C-alpha cells in the first residue's frame, strides 16, 4: 500500500509539473502567433472604397491599411493641426470631404498644408491608404479646423452618411490632371497589441514559475526536518550546559 501511495503521488507530481510546462508553452505560442498576425503585410491590389467598407458603419479590420480608389467632388475644406507624420514630425494637414457619386462622403488628408488650401472644382479621382479614425484630439480646434481626423466631427444634415476612418492620398487627379502635392507619408500602421503580447508572456512566466515550485516542493519538508534537527541539537546542548552550570 505504501508503494502504491508513493507511486500515485509521484505520478501526480510529475503530471502537475508537465501541465505547468505545457500551459507555459501554449501561452508562448499564442504570443508568437499574435506577432505573426499583427506584423505588416505586403500591400494588396488597389480596390474601390465601397468594396472594403460601408458608409455609416465601423471600418472593418480587413480594410485598415488597404490601398483604395474613390471618385467624387470635394465639398468641404478643413485643417487638421499638429498631426504626427514620418520621423515624429508635426505638421498641419489639408483635409477635404470627398463627396462620392453614391451621395456618401469620406475624409481625405490631401497633403501637408503649406498655406490655406483653396477650393477645388471639378471631378476628383484619388488613390490612397485608408486608416481608422483618430480617437485623441491633437490640438484645440478653431472654426474650420479639426482637433482630430474623425468623420464623426463632420457628420451633418448635408452629410449624414460618411465612411469611417480617413484616406491619406497617394495620388490625385482633378479633371484628369495629376495634382502636384506635398504628399503625406502613408506607411502601414501597426495593428500590434503590445498589452496582449506581454500579457501572454507574463502567463508564460507564471506557469513556469509554478512548475519550478512544484519541482522543488519535495525538498521543503527535508529542509524543515533538517532545521528541526539542528534546533533540537542546539536546545539539548543549551540544556546540558545549563545543568552542568547548576551542578557547579
Describe this structure in words.
- The protein is of the alpha/beta class.
- It has helices spanning 2-38, 194-216, 219-247; strands at residues 47-48, 67-84, 90-100, 105-112, 124-131, 145-146, 162-174, 177-178.
- Helices cover 36% and strands 26% of the residues.
- It has a five-stranded mixed barrel.
- The relative contact order is 0.16.
Major sheet: 5 strands, mixed, barrel
Secondary-structure arrangement, i.e. CATH architecture of the largest domain: Beta Barrel
Instruction: Report the order of strands and helices.
Output: HEEEEEEEEHH
Query: Ranges with pLDDT <50 over ≥5 residues?
Result: 243-248
The CATH class of the largest domain is identified as Mainly Beta
What structural class should be given to the helix and strand makeup? alpha/beta
Shape: elongated
β-sheet strand percentage:
25-35%
Oligomer: single chain
